[in-house]
Amino acid sequence: MIFSGLPAIVLGGFAVCATALSDLDASVWKDLESKQHSKRLFQDHGRNRPVKRATGWSPPSDLATPLEEVWDHYVSTYDGGVAGNVNWGWHQVMANEGKLNICVRWDSNQTVTAAERTKIAATYNTQYQKWFKWVYGYNGFPYTKVDINIVGWAVSDTSLLEGSTSDIDVYTDLDNDGIPMCAVGCSRDAHLDSDYSGCEGGADHHYDQSLWLTEGLDGGYGYSWGQQVGREYFMTNIDSENIHILLHEMGHTFGLDDFYDWTPTGVTNFIMLAGSALEITDFDGWMYRNWWYELSKTNGWASSSVAGSSGTTATSSVAVTSDATTATEGVATPTEDAAYIVSTTSVPATSATLEVVTSQAPVVPHTPSFTPIFPVVTPITPVSSFNSTPVATPYQTPSAIPGDAATAGRWEQCGGGSSYRGPTKCSSGLNCIKHNQYYHQCI
Question: Which residues form the signal peptide (predicted)?
Answer without folding.
Answer: 1-20
